[in-house]
Amino acid sequence: MTAHALELRGLVKEYRPGQPVLRGIDLNIEGRGLTAIVGPSGTGKSTLIRCINRLVDPSAGAIWLCAGNQRIDLATQRGRALRECRRRIGMVFQEYNLVERLTVMENLLTGRLGYVGAWNAWRRKFPQADLDHAFELLDAVGLRTFVNQRADALSGGQRQRVGIARALMQRPQVMLADEPTSSLDPKTAVEIMTLLRDQGLKRGIPVIVNSHDVDLARRFADRVVGMSGGKVVFDGAPAGLSDAVLRTIYGGEDWLQ
Amino acid sequence: MSKTISQSPTATPFQAPRAARIVGLSVALYACYALAQLDFSWARFETGLGNGLRFIARMFPPDVSRLDVLWSGLRESLQIAVLATTLGVLCALPVGILAARNLMPAWCSWPARGLITICRSLHPVIVSILFVKAVGFGALAGILALMVASVGFIGKLFAEATEEISLKQLEAVRATGASFPNLLAYGVLPQVLARFVGFATYQLDSNLRNSTMVGIVGAGGIGGALFSAFQRYDYDFVFTILASIVAIIVAGELAANQLKKVFHV
């Protein structure tokens, strides 16, 4: 038995035949800690994250989701089995992707939609345990007083906190975050990264964050994966991100001055 | 340098496309041709104006002696409009979702779009005639005819509104492992509900007007009374009916505005 939460094997994605965005990614994600994926735009960071919860279908390769003795290849799941896998993976988005016209509470409860039947979901009838969990998470992200506000009334930082709380509502085994701080100011970005790291540690789940902000990655990540041209070109502790490594990841050097 | 740019043919900043000019010219030419064909002359227009004035003069004073006939007709028209809108909107909701190409595969959206097109292509009066033949004279034919019109109109607008929703919000709901009905309830409907209420109130307005007309072909409502008043040259009663219809339409519009406020549209 391995201690890995996720194992990616030979992951390939081609949006157009013959033009792979991901060229065979092999990656193991440990059971805890924050992993930052850095790399230039268009190198497949988002595609990699989206392949894991199958918002994007990989062209080849395997994605093993491991828990206890259970190992599921996410790449081959379909229909109900896929939905049941998605419930176990929380996701935070760059543009928050909250349902704008729903309240903060309704957005949080969206995280339980994989468990609640259509009739109860429609009537907003969720188990008391879910409601308690939602209030606990609202306290954790500091938005308890906003519970009945509509999502479109919130600021960017507040929205991303709701986004994180919604993902945590799933009680996920793995947290994915696709550029969670790119639309935020530097101070809020740090707050969001702190929240992601702390919640991951507190709940004992691994967090995978895409970022183009190398400094944030250095500061918060336990491990940094550098991608370039659809391949992993660096994998190690943030201390190992030397100028030479950054040149390999991003190319050029003028920007390092 | 600047001179060569201004001389080049591509530098003209605004130029109507040739196709648009040709279309505009054709429409103008056809209008002239149609006018000549229809024997539309100033003399006829003048006689017509005189007739119209006599017609209006005979409307006064309005006849208020047959209020029972007026009231039963109006009540039936209202019932037709409200029932047709309610049932039609309920039917249009699933049809519109099925027709949305961003949610449904082509084998599902094309038949649904076909149904919408059929519902929209015939005028409510023609559909009323068909239903009068099918189910007989009376309000049922009117309700069914206006339901068909509602499914066509709301179904089309609702499908278009659904095709314009933000896929990002949908993606986030999908990522939680939500089933398709839950995706509809939390990802799609919140985004389109406000517009849907707008469409439905507009359709209620439209059905109110149409429900006063389907009676002319025997499908129930005030239209029947209006038609027979015309045939008997009871223009004073015609005026009473027309004024009542206008009042009802205005009242309906006010009610629709209140409805929109309730739903925060």
Can you tell me about this structure?
The complex is a heterodimer of chains A (257) and B (265). Chain A has 257 residues and is of the alpha/beta class. Chain A has a single domain (4-250), classed as P-loop containing nucleotide triphosphate hydrolases (Rossmann fold), CATH 3.40.50. Chain A is built from nine helices and ten strands. A six-stranded mixed beta sheet of chain A has the order 6-7-8-3-9-10, with helices on both faces. In chain A, helix 5 runs antiparallel to helix 6 and helix 6 packs parallel to helix 7 (186-203). The longest helix of chain A has 18 residues, at 186-203. Chain A is globular. With 265 residues, chain B is an all-alpha fold. In chain B, helix 4 (67-99) runs antiparallel to helix 5, helix 8 crosses helix 9 and helix 10 (222-231) runs antiparallel to helix 11 (235-262). Chain B has one domain (67-262): MetI-like fold (Orthogonal Bundle). Chain B is 78% helix and 0% strand. Chain B has helices at 2-7, 18-37, 42-57, 67-99, 106-121, 124-135, 139-163, 167-175, 180-211, 222-231, 235-262. Classes of the chains: A alpha/beta (257), B mainly alpha (265). The interface between A and B is medium-sized, with 31 and 22 residues.
